[in-house]
Design a protein that fits this description.
- The chain has one domain: Cytochrome p450 (Orthogonal Bundle), CATH 1.10.630.10.
- It is built from 14 helices and 14 strands.
- The termini are far apart.
- It has 390 residues and is an alpha+beta fold.
- Helix 6 (135-143) runs antiparallel to helix 10.
Length: 390
């Protein structure tokens, strides 16, 4: 059996994960752990890109996350490789065109501003519990043309699912995952009964897709909606808390961005690199392969650690520092790379830019007000971040 190079279950602070993986990138860039029946962690930028961009050699169809938590069905497009996944991406991509995202901008400002107002007025609070765990529910409801009440139901169900994953309670993972499927099924039945313009409604659009004259399999449409529910809810929750906590620790950066709001898009790009929330997206070797000097056997799982790749010293000088306008910032892989790069990246980026802009415009200072609680695998980021606001 391979050596055990690291323990993904070790307790973490805000920066301890990155210190550990900086050490491993230097000494053991393809590292092995015996957790969850054993897996490899791919840590260097070039190796991460090579794995994620080669579905023939590293497939996502067996296991898409480390630890394996998908027991309740296949969920396109993440669980499929090309060409099987292509109709689903082709159906979803038009909803994230620049003109669609631009039209969503004023809605996003209304949502973000409405949620931030009471938190800032109170002067202190946990931005994760009081803002980031609520924000994606409202955004998801608007984007999918649902009621805010259903958006909050999705938020609550997602929170229970994520809590089960963080505890590695696989029985609870299955139960809470099935509850999310029930919500996705409800949304589909709503659209069957009352279709909307497929140009403006993703679910109606998926139901209208035809491949060789046939509709997409209904269980796959169900899986697609179920996948969007979780991915769209989880990553912003942990990432925004990390971003604002970093701001709280760097008051000079806060003020620079308040004085020059035109820098906010560049700041968000650098935060995506520095505070990437994903470290456990998985692939499975389709044959024996050597990577980073290690022999990966056929059918062994690999975690594609985007959070480590984005701090690879060989690609990003001074990788642990926040640097505005990095000359190669466009190389970051926070949204993935290859055929499975996040379809919703434009909407997520808008959410982050508006959050940063609204929060800085509504405050004169943000300060840390206690120790954060960090997530475990497969995400990296804050579950709670107590802050004070002036």
């Amino acid at each position: 059996m391979p050596d055990v190079d690291f323990d993904p279950l070790a307790p973490e602070t805000f920066e301890s994960f990155h210190a550990e993986f900086s050490r491993l990138r230097e000494r053991c860039p393809v590292a092995h752990s015996d957790a969850w029946n054993g897996f490899w962690a791919v840590l260097r930028y070039d190796d991460v890109v090579a794995v994620a961009a080669n579905p023939e050699l590293y497939t996502t169809t067996v296991q898409n996350v480390v630890p394996k938590i998908a027991f309740t069905g296949r969920r396109p497009p993440l669980h499929l490789d090309p060409p099987e996944h292509t109709p689903y991406r082709r159906a979803l991509n038009p909803y994230f065109r620049p003109e669609k995202i631009a039209a969503f901008d004023p809605v996003m400002h209304d949502i973000v501003g409405g949620l931030l107002k009471p938190l800032v007025a109170a002067g202190r609070g946990d931005i994760c519990a009081e803002f980031t765990h609520r924000l994606p529910g409202y955004v998801f409801a608007h984007f999918f043309n649902l009621t805010p009440e259903l958006g909050m139901q999705i938020r609550d169900a997602t929170r229970e699912f994520v809590a089960a994953v963080q505890k590695f309670d696989m029985d609870a993972v299955k139960v809470t995952s099935l509850a999310l499927y029930d919500i996705a099924r409800e949304i589909i039945e709503m659209r069957k009964a009352e279709p909307r313009d497929p140009e403006d409604d993703p679910v109606t659009g998926l139901l209208a897709v035809r491949v060789d004259g046939e509709p997409l399999p209904e269980e796959m449409v169900l899986g697609t909606i179920r996948q969007f529910i979780v991915v769209g809810m989880v990553a912003p929750c942990v990432f925004i808390g990390s971003m604002v906590l970093h701001l709280a620790q760097h008051p000079e950066l806060q003020q620079q961005l308040r004085d020059e709001p035109a820098l906010i898009p560049a700041a968000v790009d650098e935060y995506l690199r520095l505070l990437t929330p994903y470290r456990g997206f998985a692939r499975t070797a389709t044959q024996d392969v050597e990577l980073g000097g290690r022999l990966i056997r056929k059918d062994e799982p690999l975690a594609v650690v985007y959070a480590s790749a984005n701090r690879d010293e060989a690609v990003f000088p001074n990788p642990h520092e926040f640097v505005l306008d990095r000359p190669n910032i466009g190389k970051h892989v926070a949204y993935g790379v290859g055929p499975h790069r996040c379809a919703g990246a434009p909407l997520a980026t808008l959410m982050l830019r508006v959050t940063l802009a609204e929060l800085l415009a509504r405050t004169t200072s943000i300060e840390q007000d206690g120790e954060p609680t960090m997530t475990g695998w497969p995400e990296w980021g804050t579950l709670s971040a107590p802050l004070r606001f002036s």
